Amino acid sequence: MRIKELDLHDLKPDLQIPDKHTLHVWTFHSDVPENMHKNLHEYSHVLLHKLVSCYTKYPENELTFSTGEHGKPCLLPPAGQCVPLLHFNLSHSGDYIMFIFSSCTSVGIDIESTKRKANIDRIALRLFLPEEIEHLHELTGDKKIQYFFHCWTRMESLLKGIGTGLSASPTDKHIQEERAFWELKHVAAPEGYLCCTAYRRLGT
Predict the structure, then answer these.
(1) If you write DSSP's letter for every residue of 140-158 in order, what string do you get?
(2) Neighbouring C-beta atoms of residue 122, cutoff 10 Å
(3) DSSP secondary structure code for residue 5 in this structure
(4) I need a surface site. Which of 108, 123, 155, 191 has the fewest CB within 10 A?
(5) DSSP letters along 19-88, please?
C-alpha cells in the first residue's frame, strides 16, 4: 500500500478519495492561523469535519459522526443518501495532529512526542510484547526512549485500527490473532515525534 503524505496546503474542496492502493496521511501543526480553538482535541475534530467534507463533497453541517464501542470515530451517511466509503483515524500529540484515510480498509494512526515524560519500564511491562520488553531492557538513554516510542506507536496504531484502543492489550489472544492481518508502517513525522500507521491487508 502506497502512502501519500499531505498537509494544510493540500486541503482543497476538490480532494479525491484515495484509490485502493493508496493511504492518505495528513499532518497539521496546531498553531496554524486558522486555529482559533484552545483545545487540541476540539481542533482535531474541526479538521476532521473539514477533511471528510472535502473528500465526500457533503457540507460539514450535514455530516454525522459516531463512535464504536471503544471510541473509534466513523462516518454515518446522511439520511436517505449515500456517501463514498471512507475509513479514517486521527491522533494528536504536543503541537501536531495527524490523520489517515483509506477508501477500502480499516486504518489506525498514532503520533507521540518523544519528549513526553513516561514511566517507560512500567508501561512496557503492562503493554509490550515479551521480546520488546527484553530488547528495551538492553538499551539506555536516547536509544531506549526512541525504541520505547517506536514500540508504543506501533502498538497503539494497531489497537486503534482494530477499534479496541487501549481497552485491549497486544498480548491478548484475539489481538495476536488479528495482528497477523495487519501491516504497520512508520511514516515521516516532525522532529521530536514518531508516527506509525496501521492498515488491514486487503482480502483478509
Answers:
(1) -HHHHHHHHHHHHHHHHHH
(2) 9
(3) E
(4) 191
(5) -TTEEEEEEEETTSTT---S-HHHHHHHHHHHHHHHHHT--GGG-EEEE-TTS-EEEEPPTT------EE
139 phi and psi angles, rounded to 5 deg: -105, 160
> Per residue in 99-122, pLDDT tens?
999 999 999 999 999 998 889 999
| Cα R_g (the chain), whole angstroms | 17
Domain spans of the chain, in order of start:
2-200
The 10s digit of each residue's pLDDT in 17-45 is 999 999 999 999 987 555 555 578 888 98
Extract the C-alpha cell encoding 159: 489497537
- Grid coordinates representing 96? 501536531
Looking up cell 471510541, which residue turns up?
Answer: 71
Question: So what's the architecture of 2-200 in CATH?
Answer: Alpha-Beta Complex (3.90)
